[in-house]
Amino acid sequence: MTRKIEVTRQVTATILSMSLLTVMAGAAIAPALGIIKQHFCTAPDLLVQLIVSIPALLIIVTSLFFRSISKRLRTRSIATLGLVLYVVAGAGCYFVREIHVLLAMRALLGVSVGLIMPLSTGLLAYYFPPRELARLMGLSAAMNQMGGVVATLLAGLLATVEWNYAFLVYVLGLIALVMVIVWLPNEQLSSHDKQGNAFEPRHLLKFHPSVIGMLLLMMIFFIFPTNFAIIASEQTSLSSQAITMIMVGLDVVAFFVGLAFGHLMKAFRRPIKYFAPVSFLMGYGFYLLGNVTSLVVGSALIGIAAGVGVPYLNTIASIKGGKNSATTVMPLISAALYLGQFISPILVMPLSGMFGDGDVSAPYKVGVILSLLFLLQVWTTRHFQSLPPE
Predict the structure, then answer these.
(1) Which of 74, 333, 353, 356 has the highest CB neighbour number within 10 Å of its CB?
(2) In the Cβ-directed half-sphere of 167, how many Cα atoms lie within 13 Å?
(3) Is the pLDDT assigned to residue 29 strictly greater than 70?
Protein backbone atom coordinates (compact mmCIF):
# COMPACT_ATOMS: atom_id res chain seq x y z
CA MET A 1 0.00 0.00 0.00
CA THR A 2 1.39 3.39 -0.93
CA ARG A 3 1.66 6.33 1.39
CA LYS A 4 -1.03 8.16 -0.60
CA ILE A 5 -3.55 5.36 0.12
CA GLU A 6 -2.56 5.19 3.78
CA VAL A 7 -3.32 8.86 4.35
CA THR A 8 -7.04 8.48 4.90
CA ARG A 9 -9.35 10.89 6.67
CA GLN A 10 -8.95 8.73 9.77
CA VAL A 11 -5.16 9.16 9.69
CA THR A 12 -5.52 12.93 9.28
CA ALA A 13 -8.07 13.09 12.11
CA THR A 14 -5.75 11.03 14.32
CA ILE A 15 -2.84 13.42 13.78
CA LEU A 16 -5.09 16.42 14.42
CA SER A 17 -6.50 14.80 17.59
CA MET A 18 -3.05 15.07 19.16
CA SER A 19 -3.16 18.83 18.57
CA LEU A 20 -6.21 19.00 20.84
CA LEU A 21 -4.15 17.76 23.77
CA THR A 22 -0.85 19.62 23.65
CA VAL A 23 -2.11 22.98 24.95
CA MET A 24 -3.71 21.27 27.95
CA ALA A 25 -0.37 20.58 29.65
CA GLY A 26 -0.48 23.83 31.62
CA ALA A 27 -3.51 25.78 30.47
CA ALA A 28 -6.08 23.21 31.57
CA ILE A 29 -5.13 23.53 35.24
CA ALA A 30 -4.72 27.32 35.28
CA PRO A 31 -8.38 28.05 36.19
CA ALA A 32 -8.18 25.66 39.14
CA LEU A 33 -4.89 27.00 40.49
CA GLY A 34 -6.60 29.19 43.10
CA ILE A 35 -8.47 26.21 44.52
CA ILE A 36 -5.34 24.06 44.38
CA LYS A 37 -3.43 26.78 46.25
CA GLN A 38 -6.02 26.73 49.01
CA HIS A 39 -5.50 22.99 49.45
CA PHE A 40 -1.69 23.36 49.57
CA CYS A 41 -1.87 26.48 51.72
CA THR A 42 1.28 25.60 53.67
CA ALA A 43 3.38 25.08 50.52
CA PRO A 44 5.54 27.93 49.13
CA ASP A 45 3.87 29.95 46.37
CA LEU A 46 6.65 28.97 43.96
CA LEU A 47 5.80 25.27 44.25
CA VAL A 48 2.14 25.97 43.55
CA GLN A 49 3.04 28.05 40.48
CA LEU A 50 5.28 25.24 39.23
CA ILE A 51 2.19 23.04 38.92
CA VAL A 52 1.34 25.04 35.81
CA SER A 53 4.84 25.87 34.54
CA ILE A 54 6.94 22.75 35.17
CA PRO A 55 5.46 20.76 32.24
CA ALA A 56 6.81 23.42 29.86
CA LEU A 57 10.40 22.82 31.01
CA LEU A 58 10.15 19.07 30.42
CA ILE A 59 8.47 19.61 27.05
CA ILE A 60 11.47 21.69 25.99
CA VAL A 61 13.99 19.06 27.13
CA THR A 62 12.09 16.15 25.58
CA SER A 63 11.61 18.00 22.29
CA LEU A 64 15.36 18.47 21.97
CA PHE A 65 15.86 14.69 22.31
CA PHE A 66 13.01 13.81 19.95
CA ARG A 67 15.25 13.08 16.95
CA SER A 68 17.21 10.50 18.95
CA ILE A 69 13.97 8.92 20.17
CA SER A 70 12.60 8.75 16.61
CA LYS A 71 15.66 6.74 15.52
CA ARG A 72 14.77 4.00 18.01
CA LEU A 73 10.95 4.02 17.92
CA ARG A 74 8.41 4.23 15.12
CA THR A 75 5.68 6.85 15.00
CA ARG A 76 2.82 4.77 16.42
CA SER A 77 5.07 3.57 19.24
CA ILE A 78 6.14 7.14 20.10
CA ALA A 79 2.56 8.43 19.98
CA THR A 80 1.24 5.50 22.05
CA LEU A 81 3.96 5.91 24.66
CA GLY A 82 3.33 9.65 24.82
CA LEU A 83 -0.44 9.30 25.13
CA VAL A 84 -0.31 6.55 27.76
CA LEU A 85 2.08 8.69 29.80
CA TYR A 86 -0.18 11.71 29.16
CA VAL A 87 -3.25 10.00 30.65
CA VAL A 88 -1.40 8.32 33.52
CA ALA A 89 0.63 11.38 34.56
CA GLY A 90 -2.18 13.87 33.92
CA ALA A 91 -5.19 12.10 35.43
CA GLY A 92 -2.97 10.35 37.98
CA CYS A 93 -2.65 13.66 39.83
CA TYR A 94 -6.22 13.06 40.98
CA PHE A 95 -4.89 10.48 43.44
CA VAL A 96 -1.91 12.53 44.70
CA ARG A 97 -2.01 14.38 48.01
CA GLU A 98 1.63 15.50 48.39
CA ILE A 99 2.81 18.49 46.36
CA HIS A 100 6.28 17.14 45.52
CA VAL A 101 4.76 13.95 44.09
CA LEU A 102 2.27 16.13 42.24
CA LEU A 103 5.12 18.12 40.67
CA ALA A 104 6.86 14.88 39.64
CA MET A 105 3.67 13.76 37.90
CA ARG A 106 3.38 17.13 36.17
CA ALA A 107 6.98 16.78 34.97
CA LEU A 108 6.11 13.41 33.44
CA LEU A 109 3.16 15.08 31.74
CA GLY A 110 5.64 17.47 30.15
CA VAL A 111 7.66 14.52 28.86
CA SER A 112 4.50 13.08 27.30
CA VAL A 113 3.67 16.30 25.44
CA GLY A 114 7.29 16.55 24.30
CA LEU A 115 6.74 13.19 22.57
CA ILE A 116 3.34 14.06 21.11
CA MET A 117 3.78 17.62 19.90
CA PRO A 118 6.43 17.16 17.17
CA LEU A 119 4.27 14.38 15.70
CA SER A 120 1.09 16.50 15.78
CA THR A 121 2.60 18.89 13.23
CA GLY A 122 5.59 17.02 11.77
CA LEU A 123 3.50 14.12 10.47
CA LEU A 124 1.43 16.57 8.44
CA ALA A 125 4.59 17.59 6.56
CA TYR A 126 5.60 13.92 6.29
CA TYR A 127 2.38 12.79 4.64
CA PHE A 128 1.14 15.84 2.72
CA PRO A 129 2.60 17.98 -0.09
CA PRO A 130 3.47 21.66 0.58
CA ARG A 131 0.36 22.94 -1.21
CA GLU A 132 -1.86 21.32 1.45
CA LEU A 133 0.17 22.29 4.51
CA ALA A 134 -1.32 25.76 5.09
CA ARG A 135 -4.85 24.36 5.40
CA LEU A 136 -3.72 21.49 7.64
CA MET A 137 -1.51 23.62 9.88
CA GLY A 138 -4.47 25.98 10.26
CA LEU A 139 -6.66 23.04 11.30
CA SER A 140 -3.95 21.89 13.73
CA ALA A 141 -3.79 25.35 15.31
CA ALA A 142 -7.60 25.49 15.46
CA MET A 143 -7.72 22.12 17.22
CA ASN A 144 -5.11 23.40 19.65
CA GLN A 145 -7.25 26.43 20.46
CA MET A 146 -10.39 24.32 20.78
CA GLY A 147 -8.56 21.99 23.15
CA GLY A 148 -7.66 25.00 25.27
CA VAL A 149 -11.26 26.23 25.41
CA VAL A 150 -12.75 22.83 26.24
CA ALA A 151 -10.06 21.91 28.77
CA THR A 152 -10.16 25.30 30.52
CA LEU A 153 -13.93 25.28 30.92
CA LEU A 154 -14.07 21.60 31.91
CA ALA A 155 -11.22 21.81 34.42
CA GLY A 156 -12.72 24.93 35.98
CA LEU A 157 -16.04 23.14 36.35
CA LEU A 158 -14.47 19.98 37.79
CA ALA A 159 -12.44 22.02 40.28
CA THR A 160 -15.67 23.30 41.85
CA VAL A 161 -16.33 19.74 43.03
CA GLU A 162 -12.90 19.37 44.62
CA TRP A 163 -9.42 20.58 43.72
CA ASN A 164 -8.11 17.23 42.46
CA TYR A 165 -11.07 16.65 40.13
CA ALA A 166 -9.59 19.21 37.71
CA PHE A 167 -6.87 16.71 36.73
CA LEU A 168 -9.47 14.29 35.38
CA VAL A 169 -9.60 16.46 32.26
CA TYR A 170 -6.54 14.55 31.03
CA VAL A 171 -8.68 11.43 30.58
CA LEU A 172 -9.57 13.05 27.25
CA GLY A 173 -6.24 11.70 26.03
CA LEU A 174 -7.81 8.23 25.83
CA ILE A 175 -9.75 9.29 22.73
CA ALA A 176 -6.57 10.16 20.85
CA LEU A 177 -4.87 7.02 22.20
CA VAL A 178 -7.55 4.75 20.70
CA MET A 179 -7.35 6.62 17.38
CA VAL A 180 -3.56 6.24 17.30
CA ILE A 181 -3.69 2.50 18.01
CA VAL A 182 -6.37 1.89 15.37
CA TRP A 183 -5.40 4.28 12.56
CA LEU A 184 -1.91 5.77 12.82
CA PRO A 185 0.62 4.07 10.49
CA ASN A 186 3.77 2.87 12.22
CA GLU A 187 6.36 4.77 10.15
CA GLN A 188 10.08 4.96 10.75
CA LEU A 189 10.80 8.66 10.39
CA SER A 190 13.80 9.45 8.22
CA SER A 191 16.89 11.00 9.81
CA HIS A 192 18.18 12.29 6.47
CA ASP A 193 17.64 15.58 4.74
CA LYS A 194 16.28 16.10 1.22
CA GLN A 195 19.64 15.30 -0.35
CA GLY A 196 19.93 12.03 1.54
CA ASN A 197 22.79 13.19 3.75
CA ALA A 198 22.84 12.59 7.46
CA PHE A 199 21.22 15.48 9.25
CA GLU A 200 23.63 17.52 11.37
CA PRO A 201 22.69 19.99 14.13
CA ARG A 202 24.39 22.84 12.28
CA HIS A 203 21.78 22.49 9.53
CA LEU A 204 19.18 23.75 12.01
CA LEU A 205 20.56 27.24 11.49
CA LYS A 206 18.41 27.49 8.39
CA PHE A 207 15.27 27.22 10.55
CA HIS A 208 16.10 30.13 12.86
CA PRO A 209 13.47 32.56 11.43
CA SER A 210 10.62 30.21 12.39
CA VAL A 211 12.15 29.11 15.70
CA ILE A 212 12.91 32.65 16.90
CA GLY A 213 9.58 33.81 15.49
CA MET A 214 7.71 31.21 17.56
CA LEU A 215 9.70 32.19 20.66
CA LEU A 216 8.76 35.86 20.22
CA LEU A 217 5.15 35.07 19.35
CA MET A 218 4.64 33.03 22.53
CA MET A 219 6.43 35.58 24.71
CA ILE A 220 4.09 38.27 23.40
CA PHE A 221 0.93 36.18 23.50
CA PHE A 222 1.40 35.02 27.10
CA ILE A 223 1.38 38.58 28.34
CA PHE A 224 -2.37 38.25 27.82
CA PRO A 225 -3.30 35.21 29.99
CA THR A 226 -0.88 36.13 32.78
CA ASN A 227 -2.06 39.75 33.12
CA PHE A 228 -5.45 40.34 31.50
CA ALA A 229 -7.77 39.28 34.34
CA ILE A 230 -5.86 41.29 36.95
CA ILE A 231 -5.53 44.45 34.85
CA ALA A 232 -9.09 44.32 33.48
CA SER A 233 -10.53 44.10 37.00
CA GLU A 234 -8.59 47.23 37.98
CA GLN A 235 -9.31 49.20 34.80
CA THR A 236 -13.02 48.42 34.53
CA SER A 237 -16.02 47.34 36.58
CA LEU A 238 -16.39 44.08 34.67
CA SER A 239 -17.30 41.01 36.70
CA SER A 240 -14.98 38.03 36.81
CA GLN A 241 -17.47 36.12 34.67
CA ALA A 242 -17.40 38.85 31.99
CA ILE A 243 -13.61 38.90 32.01
CA THR A 244 -13.56 35.11 31.66
CA MET A 245 -15.91 35.34 28.67
CA ILE A 246 -13.62 37.85 26.95
CA MET A 247 -10.66 35.53 27.52
CA VAL A 248 -12.54 32.53 26.16
CA GLY A 249 -13.72 34.70 23.26
CA LEU A 250 -10.09 35.26 22.28
CA ASP A 251 -9.58 31.51 21.95
CA VAL A 252 -12.77 31.24 19.89
CA VAL A 253 -11.50 33.97 17.51
CA ALA A 254 -8.16 32.16 17.18
CA PHE A 255 -10.03 28.90 16.50
CA PHE A 256 -12.03 30.32 13.59
CA VAL A 257 -8.98 32.13 12.18
CA GLY A 258 -7.12 28.82 12.27
CA LEU A 259 -9.95 27.14 10.35
CA ALA A 260 -9.74 29.87 7.71
CA PHE A 261 -5.93 29.99 7.60
CA GLY A 262 -5.60 27.97 4.40
CA HIS A 263 -7.78 30.49 2.55
CA LEU A 264 -5.99 33.44 4.15
CA MET A 265 -2.61 32.05 3.08
CA LYS A 266 -3.81 31.90 -0.52
CA ALA A 267 -5.47 35.32 -0.48
CA PHE A 268 -2.64 37.18 1.29
CA ARG A 269 0.44 35.17 0.34
CA ARG A 270 2.90 38.05 0.54
CA PRO A 271 1.58 40.24 3.43
CA ILE A 272 0.35 37.43 5.71
CA LYS A 273 3.81 37.21 7.32
CA TYR A 274 3.05 40.58 8.97
CA PHE A 275 -0.45 39.73 10.25
CA ALA A 276 0.68 38.35 13.64
CA PRO A 277 3.11 41.11 14.72
CA VAL A 278 0.82 43.90 13.47
CA SER A 279 -2.24 42.35 15.17
CA PHE A 280 -0.30 42.00 18.43
CA LEU A 281 0.85 45.61 18.15
CA MET A 282 -2.68 46.89 17.58
CA GLY A 283 -4.17 44.58 20.22
CA TYR A 284 -1.91 45.71 23.05
CA GLY A 285 -2.29 49.28 21.80
CA PHE A 286 -6.06 49.02 22.25
CA TYR A 287 -5.57 47.57 25.73
CA LEU A 288 -3.79 50.77 26.76
CA LEU A 289 -7.07 52.69 26.30
CA GLY A 290 -8.47 50.83 29.30
CA ASN A 291 -12.20 50.77 28.48
CA VAL A 292 -14.49 47.80 27.89
CA THR A 293 -14.76 48.30 24.13
CA SER A 294 -10.99 48.52 23.71
CA LEU A 295 -10.53 45.36 25.79
CA VAL A 296 -12.91 43.43 23.53
CA VAL A 297 -11.35 44.76 20.32
CA GLY A 298 -7.82 44.21 21.63
CA SER A 299 -8.63 40.62 22.61
CA ALA A 300 -10.05 39.93 19.15
CA LEU A 301 -6.86 41.28 17.55
CA ILE A 302 -4.65 39.15 19.78
CA GLY A 303 -6.82 36.15 18.91
CA ILE A 304 -6.21 36.91 15.23
CA ALA A 305 -2.46 37.16 15.88
CA ALA A 306 -2.38 33.75 17.56
CA GLY A 307 -4.72 32.20 14.99
CA VAL A 308 -2.52 33.33 12.08
CA GLY A 309 0.95 33.33 13.64
CA VAL A 310 1.21 29.74 14.87
CA PRO A 311 0.05 28.00 11.66
CA TYR A 312 2.07 30.41 9.51
CA LEU A 313 5.31 29.60 11.32
CA ASN A 314 4.52 25.88 11.33
CA THR A 315 3.68 25.95 7.61
CA ILE A 316 6.83 27.80 6.53
CA ALA A 317 9.03 25.64 8.77
CA SER A 318 7.41 22.44 7.48
CA ILE A 319 7.86 23.43 3.85
CA LYS A 320 11.51 24.21 4.51
CA GLY A 321 12.07 21.03 6.54
CA GLY A 322 10.22 18.78 4.09
CA LYS A 323 9.28 15.25 5.07
CA ASN A 324 11.90 15.25 7.83
CA SER A 325 10.20 18.11 9.70
CA ALA A 326 9.08 15.85 12.55
CA THR A 327 12.70 15.05 13.41
CA THR A 328 14.34 18.36 12.50
CA VAL A 329 12.50 21.66 12.78
CA MET A 330 9.31 20.67 14.64
CA PRO A 331 11.06 19.64 17.87
CA LEU A 332 12.79 23.04 17.82
CA ILE A 333 9.48 24.80 17.15
CA SER A 334 7.93 22.92 20.09
CA ALA A 335 10.83 23.86 22.35
CA ALA A 336 10.61 27.52 21.28
CA LEU A 337 6.85 27.58 21.83
CA TYR A 338 7.05 26.38 25.42
CA LEU A 339 10.21 28.34 26.19
CA GLY A 340 8.33 31.48 25.15
CA GLN A 341 5.48 30.57 27.49
CA PHE A 342 7.86 29.92 30.36
CA ILE A 343 10.05 33.01 30.11
CA SER A 344 7.28 35.49 29.21
CA PRO A 345 6.30 36.35 32.81
CA ILE A 346 9.94 36.20 33.92
CA LEU A 347 10.89 38.79 31.30
CA VAL A 348 7.77 40.97 31.35
CA MET A 349 7.76 41.57 35.09
CA PRO A 350 11.13 43.40 35.32
CA LEU A 351 10.53 45.21 32.01
CA SER A 352 7.21 46.50 33.35
CA GLY A 353 9.12 48.15 36.17
CA MET A 354 10.55 50.63 33.66
CA PHE A 355 7.15 52.35 33.56
CA GLY A 356 6.81 52.77 37.33
CA ASP A 357 5.17 50.69 40.02
CA GLY A 358 1.86 52.52 39.73
CA ASP A 359 1.34 51.86 36.01
CA VAL A 360 -1.19 49.02 35.92
CA SER A 361 -1.01 48.79 32.12
CA ALA A 362 2.80 48.45 32.05
CA PRO A 363 2.72 44.79 30.84
CA TYR A 364 0.73 45.94 27.80
CA LYS A 365 3.37 48.55 27.03
CA VAL A 366 5.96 45.78 27.15
CA GLY A 367 3.69 43.90 24.74
CA VAL A 368 3.83 46.84 22.33
CA ILE A 369 7.64 46.94 22.52
CA LEU A 370 7.98 43.18 21.97
CA SER A 371 5.48 43.36 19.09
CA LEU A 372 7.68 45.96 17.41
CA LEU A 373 10.67 43.65 17.93
CA PHE A 374 8.66 40.79 16.39
CA LEU A 375 7.76 42.98 13.42
CA LEU A 376 11.44 43.84 12.94
CA GLN A 377 12.38 40.17 13.13
CA VAL A 378 9.82 39.30 10.45
CA TRP A 379 11.02 42.14 8.21
CA THR A 380 14.71 41.22 8.45
CA THR A 381 14.26 37.45 8.02
CA ARG A 382 11.27 37.15 5.69
CA HIS A 383 10.87 40.35 3.65
CA PHE A 384 12.81 38.95 0.69
CA GLN A 385 11.93 35.31 1.35
CA SER A 386 10.47 33.37 -1.56
CA LEU A 387 6.87 32.33 -1.17
CA PRO A 388 5.98 28.71 -0.48
CA PRO A 389 4.81 26.77 -3.53
CA GLU A 390 1.14 26.50 -4.40
Answers:
(1) 333
(2) 23
(3) yes
